[in-house]
TrEMBL record:
The keyword Ribonucleoprotein does not apply. GO terms for biological process: DNA-templated transcription initiation. PANTHER family: RNA POLYMERASE ECF-TYPE SIGMA FACTO, RNA POLYMERASE SIGMA FACTOR. It comes from Wenyingzhuangia marina. Residues 123-174 form the RNA polymerase sigma factor 70 region 4 type domain. One of its GO terms (molecular function) is DNA binding. Keywords: Sigma factor, Transcription, Transcription regulation. This is RNA polymerase sigma-70 factor, ECF subfamily. NCBIfam families: sigma70-ECF (TIGR02937).
Length: 181
């Protein structure tokens, strides 16, 4: 896999092979990045916009990729930053604090025709909405994406210890929210 990743990176950085390599990159990572972004921005159309912006940024900046992390970790970090920036802009546009805006989004899940969750899933999403943004990210990456703390540390540029603490606090807050609702 690492040899394949290195070949893909080399092809992405080569003007002659870049277009074909980029198509391959999109096929490989589009779905995973879509669902990561979707958990942050909630709305399907917004997710598509952020995903497109993510791939544009990857394409424009691949020549500067220093290969100090895995390609996917680098892309995941870009997607995370793009999603957070997008949310902050939307919250500001709606004259809301980012945490209030995210709660509003999560509460709208029941009206989303693409969300087919049952009552407990909706309750879990509402509990996640109550978390601070960093804890939401950490919880989603660990619980849903089943990422290891070391991968999360690369992506979020935070220590493993801080991530473990954030996840622990997130779980406790979610448990308390579910018990009280």
């Amino acid at each position: 896999m690492i040899d394949n990743e290195q070949k893909l990176i080399n092809d992405l950085k080569n003007a002659k092979t870049q277009s074909k390599a980029f198509d391959e990159l999109v096929k490989l990572y589009k779905v995973r990045l879509y669902w990561h972004i979707r958990k942050i921005v909630i709305i399907h159309d917004d997710t598509d916009d952020v995903l497109q912006n993510t791939f544009i940024k990857v394409f424009k900046n691949i020549s500067g990729f220093k290969e100090e992390s895995k390609l996917f970790s680098w892309m995941y970090r870009i997607a995370t930053n793009e999603a957070i920036t997008f949310l902050n802009k939307k919250a500001k546009k709606n004259n809301l604090d980012i945490d209030d805006y995210q709660k509003e989004l999560r509460c709208s899940l029941q009206d989303d025709e693409l969300f087919d969750g049952d009552a407990i899933q909706i309750l879990l999403q509402k509990a996640i909405a109550e978390l601070p943004q960093k804890q939401q990210l950490v919880f989603n990456m660990k619980y849903y994406d089943e990422m290891k703390y070391e991968e999360m540390s690369e992506i979020l540029e935070t220590s493993v210890g801080a991530l473990k603490a954030s996840y622990h606090h997130a779980v406790k807050k979610i448990e308390a929210f579910i018990k009280n609702n």
